[in-house]
Q: What sequence folds into this?
């Protein structure tokens, strides 16, 4: 009998077709919305493999029902939606999709940084609203990027890729990480600092850390107070790393200059969220890795990881220590 697999959202047909050769595949493809919790709870009891997204909460309650489950393959590099400790206790392999999305996510991070610094969204809206009456010396003036100081919080693969882009803009690079990375310092001339120094010195503070118990609410009111008044905060990691209420106050009171956010604590962000009322915030709907090529590669890698485990082999990207 073929192993049973649930894919919680429509992904590329060719990836699903490959999986069908080895598995009995069910796909949740009703509209482009997350699978309802009760459907996931029903299916989890009978499946051997789950290919899921960051919109699916694979928590302890769900895992307690997963009596046959051998692998959870997350179609993302972040896996804060999965209770990895409980999965590990139950001998369930958890995998993710790093590497293939690194450069694409760094591109978007830099695009958001530039759009925020130079007020691109506001400027475009201004023109389309018919407000452009003449060229004016200080019209829609923003912040310089070339030669500015950038502080990267979390120097993982994507942090390094952002730093390479920053080097191309002749930026002075600071970073804060669990441990120093001498090879990055040598290659990019980056300086390892504590969090306070990074926040005090940087014109751009870019959040690139994984979302864990240690990074939850990492940036709060006290941190905005020590940042420069012209500083710009960019977050393409996870919303919960920054305290959104404190960020709103800091932006409103001019403690920092602007923010570019691809991620929010609650997603989709509610339309009445205070941050959406501010002109100096550029917002995106969590599209860091959203290029066609990269999203297809992520689906490929997620499928390969899942199949390898079901075939009794080691996956490419295990995140828990079962092997
Ligand atoms: C991830 O992979 O964790 C991103 O947030 C989505 O690409």
A:
């Amino acid at each position: 009998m073929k192993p049973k697999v649930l894919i919680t959202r429509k992904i590329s047909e060719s990836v699903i077709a490959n999986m069908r050769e080895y598995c009995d595949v069910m796909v949740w493809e009703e509209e482009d919305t997350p699978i309802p919790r009760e459907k996931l709870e029903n299916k989890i009891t009978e499946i051997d493999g789950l290919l899921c997204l960051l919109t699916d909460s694979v928590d302890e309650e769900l895992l307690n029902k997963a009596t046959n489950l051998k692998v959870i393959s997350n179609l993302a590099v972040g896996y804060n939606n999965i209770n990895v400790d409980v999965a590990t206790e139950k001998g369930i392999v958890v995998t993710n999709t790093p590497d293939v999305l690194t450069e694409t996510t760094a591109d978007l991070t830099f695009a958001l940084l530039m759009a925020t610094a130079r007020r691109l969204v506001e400027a475009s809206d201004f023109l389309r609203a018919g407000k452009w009456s003449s060229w004016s010396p200080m019209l829609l003036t923003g912040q310089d990027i070339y030669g500015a100081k950038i502080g990267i919080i979390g120097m993982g693969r994507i942090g390094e890729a952002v730093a390479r882009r920053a080097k191309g803009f002749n930026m002075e690079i600071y970073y804060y990480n669990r441990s120093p990375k001498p090879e990055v310092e040598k290659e990019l001339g980056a300086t390892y600092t504590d969090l306070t120094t990074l926040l005090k010195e940087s014109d751009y503070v870019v959040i690139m850390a994984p979302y864990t118990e240690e990074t939850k609410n990492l940036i709060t009111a006290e941190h905005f107070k020590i940042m420069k008044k012209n500083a710009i905060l960019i977050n393409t990691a996870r919303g919960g790393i920054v305290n959104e209420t404190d960020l709103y106050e800091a932006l409103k009171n001019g403690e920092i200059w602007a923010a570019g956010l691809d991620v929010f604590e609650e997603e989709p962000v509610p339309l009445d969220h205070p941050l959406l009322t501010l002109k100096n915030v550029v917002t995106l709907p969590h599209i860091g890795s959203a290029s066609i090529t990269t999203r297809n590669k992520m689906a490929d890698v997620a499928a390969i990881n899942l199949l390898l485990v079901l075939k009794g082999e080691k996956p490419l990207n295990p995140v828990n220590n079962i092997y």
Observations:
- The pocket of (2R)-2,3-dihydroxypropanoic acid is lined by residues 54, 76-78, 101, 288-289 (CB under 6 Å).
- Residues 88 and 321 are 7 Å apart (CA to CA).
- Residues 292-310 form the longest helix (19 residues).
- Residues 4-98+292-310 form a domain with the Rossmann fold fold (CATH 3.40.50.720).
